[in-house]
Amino acid sequence: MELKIEHLSKRYPNGVRALDDVSLTIPLGMYGLLGPNGAGKSTLMRTLATLQEPDTGQAFLGDIDVLRQKVDVRKTLGYLPQDFGVYPRISAQDMLDHLALLKGFTQRKERKELVDALLQRVNLHSVRKKALTSFSGGMRQRFGIAQALIGNPKLLIVDEPTAGLDPGERNRFYNLLSEVGENVIVILSTHIVQDVMELCTNMAIIHQGKVLFAGSPENAVEELNGRIWKRSILKAEIPEYEKRYRVISSKLIAGHPLIHILSSEPPGDGFEPVTADLEDVFFTRISGLN
Amino acid sequence: MLAHFFWFEVRYWTRSTMLWIFTAIIALMVFGAASTDQITIGAALENTYHNAPFVIENYYSFMCLLTLLMITAFVNSSAARDFSSNTHQLVFSTPLRKFDYLAGHYLGATTVSVIPMLGVSIGILVAKYMPWVDAERWGPVRWDAHWNGILVFAIPNTFFIAAIIFTIAVLTRSTVTAFIGGLILLTVYAVSQALMTDLRNETLGSLLDPFAIRTFFHATKYWTVADKNHMSIGLTGLLLWNRLIWIAVGTLIFAFGYIRFSFAERATRSKKKLLDDEGAALANVAIPQVRASQGFGFNTQLAQFWGTLGVEFWGLVKTTSFIVITIAALLNMVPSLILSASEGYGNSSLPVTYKVIELVQGTLYLFLISMITYYAGVLIWKERDSATDEIQDAMPHAEWPLYLAKLTALLGTIFMIQCLAMVAGVLVQTFNGYYRYQFGLYVSELLVMNFTVFIFLAVLAFFIHVISPNKYIGYFLFIAFLIANQFIWRPLNVGTLLVQFGNQPDYTYSDFYGYTPFLKAWLWFTAYWLVFCGVLAAGSIALWQRGRETGWRFRLAVARSRFTGPLRAFAVLMTAAFIVIGGWIYYNTKVLNTIVTEDDHDRLQADYEKSYKKYQELPQPRITSVKYRIDLYPERRNLIMRGDEVIQNKSNQAISAVHVVVAENLQSNVDIDGARLAKNDRRLHFQTYELSPPMQPGDSRHMRFTVEKKTAGFENSMTNREIMPNGTFFNNTIAPQIGYQPAGELDNKNKRKKYGLPEKDLMAALERNCTADCMNTYISNNSDWVDVETVIGTSPGQIAIAPGSLLREWSENGRCYYQYHLGHSALNFYSWLSADYKVAREQWNGLDIEVYYLAEHPWNVPKMLRSVRKSFEYYTTNFGPYANKQARIIEFPRVARFAQAFPGTMPYSEAIGFIANLKKPDDIDFVYYVVAHEMAHQWWAHQVIGANMQGATALSETLAQYSALMVMEKEYGRDTMRRFLEYEMDNYLRSRGRELLKERPLERVEADQGYIHYRKGSVVMYYLKEMIGEDAVNRALRKVLGQYGYAPAPYPTSYALVDALRAETPPNLQYLIKDLFEEITEFSNRTTAARATKQPDGSYSVAIEVDAHKFTADDKGNETEVPVDDWIEIGAFAKPPKDKKYGKVLHRDCIHMKSGKATYRFITKEEPDKAGIDPFLLLIDRVPSDNLKAVDIR
Fold first, then answer.
1. Would you call B396 and A104 a contact, using CB atoms and an 8 Å cutoff?
2. Cα B193 from Cα B210, distance rounded (Å)
3. Do A84 and B387 touch (CB under 8 A)?
4. CA distance A113 to chain B (A)
5. What is the pLDDT of residues B871-896, one digit of tens each?
6. Residue of B nearest to A73 (CA)
7. What does the H/E/C string look like for B909-921?
8. d(CA A167, nearest CA chain B) in Å
9. What is the predicted ipTM?
10. Kind of pairing, strands B348-349 and B783-794?
11. B1082-1193 has which CATH code?
12. Domain ranges within chain B, ordered by starting residue
């Protein structure tokens, strides 16, 4: 089974083009959607999660027309939105039980087992009777993944799931995701390049509603190999370098800017070659330099 | 530092729009109320200047109720700001003084909270200059009243409300608790309001009212129109005490808050506690392999409904706001349930179930409607507000289980509160020793009939929130809709309930017939709105917001895709049912019956007057005898009345045309011998018959008529409520009336103006030696004394009663017939009743005493019988013989609330008297009094009846009051009379301030000035009796009776009474007749000092200093002082025994007094407790409380 997205476009009433002719084919396994904030990732994910409507285009999950057979999509969908809250005055267990019921699990006893297992899986079992409102950010995120996993979804959409998590939690979260992702389609959106590198077999880079790249991370990196050069410079020199070179990124290392430039020829001028990584791909793509 | 915090608050709030919006709202409300007649706040401004000092202060006092929540919001926000915005750690780490911090914020917020109140002044000041206002109804600008309003109400109320809320807010840091504080103040206000309904608790109520609204009412209750226009009250008397008490309460609470408040403690407690389980994050356990079956069919949806219902219901019930509002709503109900005195004279009713239910409805339902309004928004927006919408919307559930679960949860909470109210009602009944609970009535009224309205409101609120782009617009739309639905239909002249959302026909439960006659219409209209709600529900489900797309194009597309299968079938079914039921209702209400709106009716009345008033003075034949044949079919609410009247030309000219007014809503047929129907105005119910040959003076002939009431289908609003399946009560005004009837004219002054009618004539001015103007009684203009005979048939199981003695009783065709004959000619004014009665009988000197009552209401029947007996004793001894052979008291359903005297019969509503609670021995026996009053009418009205002229009711109502007082005094003694007269005096003095036209002296009282002919009448006649003696008064009355009893026209005027009394009054008291009857006289008497010294012989030498002043008032209440040259009593009382109000009379003496101060001395045998002038409060005095003073004993 795969998810085929064809020519999705969406323009908001304020004129923002959230999706601009997006076409993707997403196979089983982890799929990364990489893009800066506001790139249109969430719009795309909500559209796939049946919560938004594109102006044009279509999407198919196997045989299911995602835009028309919403109910069928929802039956096999697990969705973890980017920002979500919780009901006040309700415990984790009760809320999860309620959501499981909404997912169609009507047998009380089975549902309880399911909820217990999920809570154990995300390690919230010991606090299952506590009010959700008292949970820390990490705990809430885990609760979020627990609810997304109800009913073994075939399509799992997680939108910026690691925002606000500390590195340790992030790792464990990804471990969980990758286990799940073996037999289902997992779409993961993030603006953190490393996440995709570590987890995803396939990816797409989205910027201003457009797909700038789709494919495997390895391929993406391959393209740039031998064309990325770095140099440490002074802050004041940045404008000058930007004029002379195709600077794709600049970050501070020990207080001095370290710039990466794109060049097919060795630029000299103190530049050293570096092995391209996904970050370079990302910045190259979104700055439109390739 | 203090100034810094103060100015910070002031700047903060004056920059917020909320403050100015609120000020504008209040200014606009007052502006509207002052400049138009359509908008009212409290009572309409009908008789005072629109900017009278009284009006200004009244608005200031009332506005506190409105600003209470605003003050709470402001002050709470000021107190909590540093915590809620998490700046407290910054602020509290700076060195600052606690006092400066608290007092600065508090004073700043308080000062700002006063600003919206000034809207009252702004509104009134501006309204005066609007071009459309009537300059005559505006007085000069009275700055002192504005200032008093601010000083007495705005500032103190804001000060202490703010102190309480601020303290709660800084100590608990909980908005909800702060609002509870506000609600508790409202409850205290409700308690004080309930206390005020009993004269005995007025002072307590006045002091207890936290907003001084009731206190202001108490202080001004005897103000006349002139007083209201000219006087402005400041901080004096009880008003001052009330303010001091509540300012002290505020200060104490603030001081408490100041002592308890601590920066450090607040800072730590405010830290949010979040669970954290670092390190315990995700364990590496395998993905759970739980075998669970997932389903999506109808059974799943049903399970989802039940599951969601639980979550939503408990989610609602567990919120603090819900608990608070519920408690407040129930608390609000309790004072009126426990305290309300509703029978008059400080009496209460037995807590019969329908009354308890009415109290619940009156106090609780506003809360319930508010809850539906508020929680509908909360529930519909719950997912989006808590940001769980994306998770839930992506779940595979259908929409309807959620919709229905939320709706059911909301209605479930309402249902729960109704059950609590029912329990409270039953408890109140039990505590009052009343055990006829009528659970069926509770259930049908609270849990079924009223509940349907809550269903309508909830479904509508849900629908509005579903289509609304956000919660606040939803609230606005819903409230706007409710207001429009309430107020728009009358101005639009729409009468049918078919378009008034959720409106059901009104109904009145009665123990006589239950709901039966109203049920059919109610059921159809309810079904109609329920299926409409079904349509709304289908719409809500189809349009249910899911996901992020809010555009209407998309939502409609989604709705179309959802609109299949069962939902579609349901919607189609509901729509079809809506149309079919609507058609059926239309057929019943508009085809089988008619709908007459108030405007329609006004227009009919106006046209009637315009077209036919010209016939009013035409000589017309007069009725001399009537035979009725009445067939009543109570179950079907049908009636056929056949009448055979003998009419006679008593004038001195020939009559060639008879004008007849027939009753609306009834089919009438008139047949006059030798007459031809020349004109029949069906619209205005006016017929003209030409007589050939004309009736010559002295001629008699028959006028036969049939009046038929045929109930067909059901009505929009039931007419002819006199005819009921059980408990029919109608009188002879439904028969065709000869001649133009002024009773059919439009009364309301403004409406008359609107339809271009001249100001309505008041009664003819009182005149002496009156002949031509005195040919009609004030009861009838087409008959004098008539003979009456009735045959009346009704269903078996019911007793039918007509005026007179029962001659014969028989059964025919399975129906029961009764023949009655009135032994003595009587006023053409009598009634017929039929119901399943129990009868209590007694005899007194060969006269039958009968009480016809419902078996369920036996409580006060013995008292009624006794009162009739005692009335017979007194009246036959002192006035003259009784004209009939029986006296009947007959209970009738509570479609009306009065007791009335017809010849020998006294219909008495089930809502009064029969359910009066007379268990407390100290209470005034209201039942005994009313019966004695109606009995007295058998002499005063049915033997002597006044001409249709000013003062007519002094002959009937005032004398009936006097007679009843005498019967009561014989039974209950003087002390009870003193208390009774306190209520009468209070009522008179209060009511004259509400007089819309002109207050008249007693001898010129207008027919509708009840406060004069009843209340002042009691006071005046009792005083006269005290001064000239009971025998002298009764001699005068016997003389009136002897001269005018059953006398033919011309009828007597009040001069007959006044002259007879004057003749019995000794020369030195002749001034009394002028003061009591011819003028409006008031006193301002007070005792300034009372001292006593014990004499060696054990007696006491008492000296009192008194100050006496006398005034006459004009018809607006403007007073002119006149010299006192009167005989006024002084006296002294011993200390009252425990539980008694009055002590033994130690001294009583009548002294000739002059205006001003004087000292009087006397000796008492025992130790005096109180002494003073006019000790029995016999004179009309606006401050009765200072007549007596505690005696200072040396």
1. yes
2. 11
3. yes
4. 7
5. 999 999 999 999 999 999 999 999 99
6. B396
7. ECCCCCCEECCCC
8. 12
9. 0.91
10. unpaired
11. 2.60.40
12. 2-269, 298-592, 956-1078, 1082-1193
